[in-house]
Specification:
Uridine Diphospho-n-acetylenolpyruvylglucosamine Reductase, domain 2, Uridine Diphospho-n-acetylenolpyruvylglucosamine Reductase, domain 3, Alpha-Beta Plaits, 4 domains, 8-stranded antiparallel beta sheet, 5-stranded antiparallel beta sheet
Length: about 400
């Protein structure tokens, strides 16, 4: 169907326009760009797309639109930015429900006066709730509260055929459909289009303090062991390494003013005993790397995981290969970036083998189209349960309407 004919069939479902070159997803053109404002409009839109045998890719603020594999086709690019309400906030229960197009930053601004927050850091800078859940995005404080899926209590989403579905609920102990929300988290929009989410909140701490140090490569195993086994209860342990032998480390404490000050003092003493200097950050350019993805536009960006004991092996291998690596030493989840040159596919393959040996994995998040074409983005051969994933996709979206081809195994 031509873009003009498709637009004519869909235009009464919600606001939309014809796609342009700027709307392409990994060089795959979008015929139509739709902007529903409610769950019901999204339902009607997908019902029509499904009936026409079309395809749809969802996005919030386009900060992660090119993550994953290029889609097989994009008949409709669905922008969720107009679904940006804080639907409900129950301060007494530490629960909030928000629409998928609301950004994490805006959500926490709206919660600020209550002294509560959604403890999910945004390393992209403009991530929406829907995009964060669809990609499983999380930042430094994952060590403290877990990943987004661990804070998720309930979801409203629209299935590929337009059916509105719900999972979980609005109370912490509700288990109705609980795992369904976790299933959609990190599925890159291939199982359903999330329109609302309910989360467990946390009180904003009275005090919060980052403390940084620089660790020589030779001292990394000993220092990491000390940080991982400390009784100081850090809320984040972040590392940042480039092509040098010097690794930046930042540790976050939160709580009462007195408690944070005492723990910062104790950490400073522990680091000093190892011959390392500690600096407490307040507002410094030295902290600009925290909760930010590494690399520059046009680089190859990828996610690496490893068991904690593998971190001292993974980081030097990355730096030897001119890869900047950054992330949580507390949970063994990192992002890394390198130049998109001819060596990039080989470097990805080598580091993926190492991650597998270390009990983890490597997934290419973003890269120029040519690098993606020459690279196994998801590492399909090493993905356990791939056939189970295919069966789940077939149950949720047998017609392949939602984000076709973007996920692991071409799902």
């Amino acid at each position: 169907m031509s873009p003009t004919a498709l637009l004519a069939e869909l235009e009464t479902a919600c606001p939309m326009r014809a796609g342009t070159n700027k709307d392409a997803v990994d060089d795959v053109p979008a015929a139509v760009v739709a902007r529903p404002g409610t769950t019901e409009q999204t339902s009607e839109l997908l019902r029509r797309v499904h009936r026409l045998g079309g395809s749809a890719v969802a996005t919030g603020h386009r900060s992660k639109l090119t993550w994953g594999r290029p889609p097989a086709r994009v008949d409709v690019l669905i922008e969720t930015g107009d679904m940006n309400r804080l639907v409900e906030h129950q301060p007494g229960d530490l629960i909030a429900t928000a629409e998928a197009g609301l950004s994490l930053t805006e959500l926490n601004q709206r919660l600020h006066d209550s002294g509560q927050e959604l403890v999910i850091d945004d390393p992209v800078g403009d991530a929406t709730i829907g995009g964060m859940l669809a990609t499983g995005l999380c930042g430094a404080r994952r060590l403290w509260v877990g990943a987004p899926r661990d804070l998720l209590l309930g979801l409203t989403f629209v299935r590929a055929d337009g059916t509105i579905a719900h999972s979980g609920g609005k109370v912490v102990k509700n288990v109705a459909g609980y795992d369904l929300g976790k299933l959609l988290t990190g599925s890159y929009g291939t199982l359903g289009l999330i329109t609302q989410a309910t989360f467990r909140l946390h009180p904003v701490p009275a005090a919060s303090q980052w403390t940084t140090t620089t660790i020589p490569g030779s001292a990394l195993p000993q220092t990491l062991s000390m940080l991982l086994h400390t009784q100081l209860a850090p809320r984040a342990i972040e590392l940042d390494a480039d092509q040098t032998d010097q690794i930046r480390c930042a540790v976050l404490f939160g709580g009462t003013h007195q408690g944070v000050a005492a723990r910062v003092c104790a950490l400073t003493t522990m680091l000093s005993d190892q011959g390392l200097d500690a600096v407490a950050l307040i507002d410094s350019a030295d902290s600009s790397w925290l909760n930010r993805l590494p690399g520059e536009p046009g680089d190859v960006l990828f996610k690496l995981t490893t068991r904690l004991s593998g971190i001292p092996d993974l980081i030097p291998e990355c730096t030897r290969r001119r890869v900047r690596i950054r992330g949580s030493a507390g949970v063994g989840v990192f992002t890394a970036a390198m130049s998109a040159d001819a060596d990039a596919p080989g470097t990805v393959a080598t580091l993926r083998r190492l991650c597998t040996e270390l009990g983890g994995s490597l997934v290419v998040l973003d890269a120029p189209a040519q690098v993606k074409n020459d690279t196994d983005v998801w590492g399909d051969d090493a993905v356990p349960g791939l056939e189970v994933m295919r069966r789940v996709k077939n149950e949720f979206d047998p017609a392949g309407v939602l984000s076709p081809g973007r996920f692991v195994g071409g799902i």
